[in-house]
Each structure stands twice: as structure tokens, then as C-alpha cells.
Amino acid sequence: MKVADKVAIVTGGGNGIGGAIAAKLAAQDARVVVADLDSDAAHAVADGINAERSGAAVGVGADVSDTAQIKQLIQRAESEFGRVDLYFANAGITGVSGLDVTEDEWDRSIDVNLRAHIRAAQLLVPGWVERGEGYFVSTASAAGLLTQLGSATYSVTKHAAVGFAEWLNITYGDQGVRVSCLCPMGVNTNLLNSPGDSDDMLARLANRAVTTAGDVLEPADVADVVLDAIADERFLILPHPAVLEMYRQKAGDYDRWLKGMRRYQHSLQEGLQ
């Protein structure tokens, strides 16, 4: 899909990958609704875009775990720019480390990292099928293909996000709906740089695993890869090519891969003591 003259919503757009994607979309002549839980951050990104291309973006504060607020985002996009062509389900949270996680903490991770994608798709996909065109981009993580040391909530919800994106692609791909799934490793964002309580060994382990597994990329570099993938209509977006080889190793010998991950975990734990 060519994004020029298209209308896009980018959630989690107040910084990091989302902010970079919003800017790259506008640079390619798309019009963008920048949504973020932090309203000030969303407006700041939109203002920066509009300084380069007047009227190309609006910023909106929104909690995308709330269906009503997703509806409002879509309505705002339609009133400002016209019908929505692309939706970037990019908002995410790291969740909580360990097994001792409350029901409320699990619910929050599931709502933000998974149900927000489902709810947006429920609102948009039927109209896209009727029109014969639309694009849904899910930001998951390499953790959705591999795993995340330390945080079960993050690993599980990112696996689920990949699974939902796959299902959307298979179910609606022949009806004009394009679906891509972004699965990066380390990216220099607030999410990476906020590992949580420094006394929480598992939170520190999760952060250390991401920063040592491969290069930590800049959000703008990831956004370039995303826009290239959309142009090619590729499903799996891997800014870190090594993830594909790791995924193949996992599939090729699951037990060996699990043993290797345990060894990797032990080595990181020793380095943090």
C-alpha cells in the first residue's frame, strides 16, 4: 500500500516507535491522528509534524484499552481527515515481572497489549472489507515470537498479539485487508529505558536481556523498516534480522532452544548479582 493521501491512526504515538511512525507517515503525505495516554506527548508529536507539513496531524489523548475511546479516535480521524485507511496498534506496556502477578495487573497487560488490538479491529475491519481496502499494523515484539525473560505478562500478551495478527491476515487478507506485525528487539524508547524497580531482579533481567540480545535501534530506523514493509505488504516486520534465525532455531529444536534460553538466563542473573 502507498500511504500518500491515506488517513492513519497511530496509538502510543507520543514517543518512541509510534512517534517515529507518525512522523514518517506524514513525510510520505499521509494524514495522521497521533494518540497517546499522555495527551501532552501526543500533541507535541503532532505539533512537530505540523511544523514540517501544516495540517498533517492532530494529537489526541486516549486510553486504547477502552473501546469507547477507540471509537472516539476513529470519529476524530474521520471528522478531521476522512475515513481511516491504516491503524497502528502500537501502544504497549511492559507489564509486571515474575509469577506473583495480581489479576488486575494481568488484566491491564491483556487490555493494552492485546484487547486494544482486538477492539480496534472489530471497529474498523468490517468497513475495510466493505470498501475492499484497509491496513492493520500490530506492534508486538520479538518476545511474541521468542519469549521475554522476567515478565510473563509481557511475553504472553505479545505472543497473543502475534497470534491475533496472524488470524486477521488469514481471515481477511483475501478481502482487501492487509495486516502486518512488528516484532523488534531492543529499541531506544521509554519502554526500554524504564525497567521498573531497580531492586526487582526479574525486571532488571528482562531489561538486560533486551539490551544484550542485539543492537538497540533508534525509533526512526524502526519506522523506516515499517514503512518499507507496508509498501511491500509484508506480514512479519523484523527490524532486527537476527530474530528470524532465532525463531527458526526455536522451531527446529524446541527443547534445545529452551535449554539455551535457561543458560542465557543464568548467565544474565550472574552478571546482575
Automatic annotation (TrEMBL):
Oxidoreductase keyword on record: yes
InterPro entries from the UniProt entry: NAD(P)-bd_dom_sf, SDR_fam
SUPFAM superfamilies listed in its UniProt record: NAD(P)-binding Rossmann-fold domains (SSF51735)
Keywords: Oxidoreductase
Domain of life: Bacteria
Molecular function as annotated in GO: oxidoreductase activity
Gene3D superfamilies: NAD(P)-binding Rossmann-like Domain
Family named by the database record: Belongs to the short-chain dehydrogenases/reductases (SDR) family.
Protein name per Swiss-Prot or TrEMBL: Putative short chain dehydrogenase/reductase
Organism of derivation: Mycobacterium cookii
